Amino acid sequence: MNWAEIRHNPRALVGASILLVFILMALLAPVIVPYSPTYILFTPNLAPSAHHLLGTTVNGQDIFSQLIWGTRESLFVGFICATLICLIQLVMGVFAGYVGGVFDIVATGITNVFLVLPSLPLLIILAAYLQGGSVFVLIAVIVVTGWAWGAKVLRAQAIALRDRPFIQAARVSGESRWHIVLTHVVPNMLGIIFSNFFGAALFSVLAEAGLEFIGLGNINDVTWGTMLYWAQEGQAILLGEWVWLLVPGLCLALLGTAFGLLNFAVDEIANPRLRRT
Amino acid sequence: MTLWVALTINYALPRLMPGNPVQTMFARYQGKVSPAAIHSMELAFGLKTKTGTFGQYIDYLHNTLTGNLGVSFSYFPARVSTLIGGALPWTLGLVGFATILAFVLGTGLGMLAAWKRGTAGWRRGSIVDSGLVPFGLMLGALPSFWISLILLYFVAFKMGWFPIAGGITAGQGIMNWPGFVSLIHHAALPAFTLTLISMGLWILLMRNNMLSVLGEDYIKFARAKGLKDRTVALHYAGRNAVLPVFAQLALALGVVVGGQVFIEIVFSYPGIGNLLLQAVENEDYPLIQGIFIIFTVALLLANFLADALYVFLDPRVRVEAGK
After folding, report:
1. pLDDT for B289-311, tens place per residue?
2. CA distances from A70 to A61, B176, B285 (A)
3. In this complex, which of A149, A246, A256 lies closest to B150 when CB atoms are compared?
């Protein structure tokens, strides 16, 4: 995997561009938003206009400001969760596959159990029990339910690498196990790890929005999920406020597609069999 | 093994969590019912047994395995198993139909994408392939609850083509023609949504597998023999490429179940997902536990069936297993 290949892959380029736009939106949100996203004293139910680009909600909030602001939490959750999930996968997948033995047996057992547990119902139930409503609770819950599949994939890859000559050479030269894993095994499967990272980010963003949509997050935060929650609570359907329903989900779908494109493109670059014409 | 772990997690979760569900419940009942009634409920829910934690755990395992899931808090005195039994057919019908449809359509489209690309020769890629891949990725990234909301608004509410809630016209039985029509009419939008969001995965998996298979020598040979493209695509490449895709059913079912829960919630469909949300909102712990067990058992069973079917479909696995 190198930069030239990434530059010449249209899917990677499109995905990265969309992601970049969202990152800029999130970082510059305080500068871009015309109004405070929590200000609630506008005339309710305004149609889109020059003053309110996307109109206002039933509760008198500016939809455009909320939309921009909502980018922050989705991206934050996506990146934090994906990072944590990757770390767990590193231990339960890569390290376990490399060292083998009892640790591998235990790790594989745990992974297989989490693989079959229905993740979304578990997600809902956990979030319901932990009614803290804080975003960190959501992150913890998403990480716990979302790591198993990738760990299995990474383990298979680590086992395939384990007996390659250069790894054996490192082992003979007396390097420690974690040192070998981090400096020899991981660099040779970076493609799959990155691909997994974007897959995990996609899962996390959708899961977070879904939990918030059914009211299991902090409903006072301004995020795309809570926007849809309030749209549902505020009878947006009956009032014909379709812009309110449309835009947060559209952004979610776009961000999700960006993660999906990157996941697919990195996989494609790392796996030559998919490139054969 | 997995079932046992799931049961144990299910047992431990509410007991490890901050706040005592039982106290929450009794706090809500305070003043509304007599102390005698509360006492009898405590007995009914098995809260005042003197057997200790381990004894309770054994009791719980025994009860669950014998199908006794307890009594619901919020629908008291309805039994959890009755409530789940009432909701399960709705969910199974929807999931079963949508999964089969998504699998057939998705693998078909994936096959087409790979074939178009694999036979495009030196002009790498084709319009069909470069269109279908982002399409599949986008389907996989669609939030199911959002797409349901949008369809609910534009197709059901604005156009009035479909009912906006429920599973069947109230008071209608399914054993006659108008009842059956009503059932299909109510299920159409949820089923369409579920098919849509689960199809993306199949397209991508099938396409990637098919591309690998198309590189094999026997495909070159089949084409060199002058067989028709259709025959090579379906009988030589497709049949071999679809097997590993089929093995991913476990992963896919997780996605389908997740989507199903949200879709039922938005369409107020009388299935398990909707029941789960109601249970969560009412802090109905026996019902939550029961639903979680049902989900786990259903996924385990589905995995088992998929494995069995896989052995049946792929002679190589049968030979390996027979050794």
Report:
1. 788 888 888 888 887 887 788 77
2. 13, 49, 32
3. A246
